[in-house]
Amino acid sequence: MSGLFPQTAKAFGFNGLSYRLLSYILICSTALAFIITALQLVWDYRKDVALIEGSIDQIHASFLQPISASLWNLDEEQVKVQIEGIMNLPNMQFVMVKEMLGSSEVPLLTQGAERDSYDISREFPLTYQGELVGKLFVAASLDQVYQRLIEKSVLILVSQTIKTLVVSFCILFIIYYLVIRHLHRIAQYTEQFNLDRLAISLTLEGRPLPRKKPDELDTLVATLNEMRSRLQDELMARHQSAEQLQQERDFSATLINSANMVICCLDPDLTIASVNPAAIMLTGYHQQEIQGHNWLELFVDEAQRDPIRARIAAQEKIEDEELLMRDQDGGELTLQWTFAPFYEGEALKYLIGFGYDITRLKLIEREITEFNEQLEGKVQERTRSLSDANEQLGQAYDDLKQAQQTLVESEKMASLGSLVAGVAHEINTPIGISVTASSYLQEQVTAFKQHLDAKQLSRSYLNEFTLNLDESMQLLQSNLRRASELIASFKQVAVDQSSEARYSFNVSDNLHQVVVSLGHKLKKAQCELDIQCDPKLSLYSFPGSFTQIYSNLILNSIHHGFDDWDRPKKITIRVERRDERLVIDYSDNGRGIPAAILPRIFDPFVTSKRGQGGSGLGCHIIYNLVVQLLRGRIHCSSDPGHGAQFHISVPMQVS
Fold first, then answer.
1. Residue 644's pLDDT is what?
2. Distance (Å) of CA 126 to CA 80, 129, 577
3. Does pLDDT of 419 surpass 60?
4. For a pLDDT cut of 90, what percent of the chain falls above it?
5. Residues facing 347 on adjacent strands
6. Radius of gyration for the alpha carbons in the chain, expressed in angstroms and rounded
7. What phi and psi, each to the nearest 5 degrees, are found at residue 127?
8. What are phi and psi of 498, to 5 degrees?
9. Is 128 exposed, middle or buried (0-12, 13-18, 19+ CB in 10 A)?
């Protein structure tokens, strides 16, 4: 700590960070002190002015009536006493009472210093029993307010200045102790940093590492030490790389000498500078005989020399090039050559040629070629037989598609038959009730005629007759109206199912029409249906397709999901618009879809009731309508024993 204060003073130099920090702190603190002082003075000024105005309002409430009465009674002494009471109020400067003589105002009594202008003044009329008897003029001075504000501002500025200076120097001292002295240590370390001092790590005074809660300085020190460690590791790696490079050179020399391929180092004019032992063994020449010779003369047949010389001169890439050569005994050899050029700037320095003897491979290749020619005839014969088989398979596939189309049409007809059965069942009840009501009316009319002929009409009989007639007519009208609504709904569903017309329709009405047509099946299955759809939601699409989708989904739940199901049965259909798509979430709480069938649920002829009347085309039809006609998407999920869910998403307008 003995050297801390000199270091601190040194750090306060005009170009140092501490001086700039102190300047910024003083400027900001001074500005803040002036702003706070100004706000405090404005607040006090408004508060004092409000008090003075409150005193004047108190005059209006407390003194006007007594002064008016005294003035009416011409009691000047009492008026004077009351004026003195007003002058005793805080900051009051001048009070004057005027007496009304006719239409003119005559000053009666004054007290205080009269001036040409006042800071705050107000004049009150003096009335007694509804008659104006005079006026009261009061004025207040703000001199005392200004004096208090000046004294308070001086006190605030002095205290704020002292506090700012003390706090600033304390903050600066803390910043120096916590930050700047460590920055000096880091700067000194970096100035003395070199490769010979890589083993010396950076540590800060009073901050041993590692720390439980490191801050930014600890992170900076750790980063510098990590950089030092990386440099040290990199330097060691460089030494190791140099040693490894030497080992690789020795390894490469060993590999080249022991390789079974020809490796030649060529000058730009294709003169052989050096070769490996494999070249000596292949050509039969000594090392001294090969060096200095042209590579073309030893390793390339005369007929191929000019083209390969031109390609090398043009600096073309030569890779896996097959060239012929003659050995000392005149035998023909085939070598596969690859050249790797090495440049010095833009000029070619030398070439490394790698030649692999593929003479035996070429012999095997010729044998394979002859064998392939023999197989070609057999392949053509097999191709003809496969072509015939393909034609037969194509015909069988066409027949299968025709059968599938027939089954789809049958499924549609079965759906129409179910609709007709629903029509008959639903209409039978209201029509039967209507027939019974009409028969009863006929009987009542016949009895009325008999009473009329027998002249036995009484008031009680007529009242009973009209009452029965009214009840029967109401019963007849309500059931006929119900039958009319059912017929209209069935007609709309039937028209939609048999038509591929596209037009705007109400989604909720379309769904409820399907529910009405399948009402008898839902009642028979004792199934509860929960529909969540905006009644105003409209869609420009194919209403018949949506009718078919709803019908197949509901019938699948009844026939498959709720078959032999002794638990509560409920179907939930939620229809809503999301962005520019119509989303249909259909779910039931039945037995669900078997895991073996679920991945293939939309494939044709997939059913869990094979041999029990199930065609396996219901979900396939739904998939085709959603994906192909409506250009939408459909997804099915199910957990056995917990129902099935279908998520359908289609565009709001099908193109």
1. 92
2. 15, 10, 76
3. no
4. 8
5. 344
6. 56
7. -120, 145
8. -95, 5
9. middle
Look at residue 420 and tell me whether its pLDDT is greater than 80: no
Per-residue model confidence as pLDDT tens digits over 227-280:
877 877 887 888 888 888 887 777 777 777 777 778 888 888 888 888 888 777
Token pair, residue 468, equals 């029965």
Q: Which phi and psi (to 5°) does residue 241 adopt?
A: -65, -40
CA distance 515 to 653: 24
Per-residue confidence (pLDDT) for residue 416, from 0 to 100: 54
- The single-letter code of the amino acid at 589 is N
Among 450, 278, 463, 277, smallest CA distance to 356 is for 278
Query: Pairing between strand 581-588 and 644-651?
Result: antiparallel
pTM above threshold 0.70: no
CB atoms within 10 A of CB 547: 23
Closest among 542, 590, 594 to 566, alpha carbons compared: 590
> What is the number of alpha carbons within 13 Å of residue 324 lying toward its C-beta?
10
Q: What are phi and psi of 502, to 5 degrees?
A: -120, 125
> What is the DSSP code (8-state) at residue 197?
G
Dihedral sign for Cα atoms in the order 363, 364, 367, 372: negative
Q: Which of 585, 588, 622, 587 is nearest to 602 (CA)?
A: 622
Given a cut of 80, whether residue 616 has pLDDT beyond it is: no
Among the listed residues 604, 585, 586, 608, the one whose alpha carbon sits nearest the alpha carbon of residue 595: 608
Looking up tokens 């790590």, which residue turns up? 201
334: β partners: 324
Q: In Å, how far are 73, 514, 517 from 426, measured between CA atoms?
A: 103, 13, 8
In the structure encoding, which two tokens stand for residue 173, read together? 């001292």
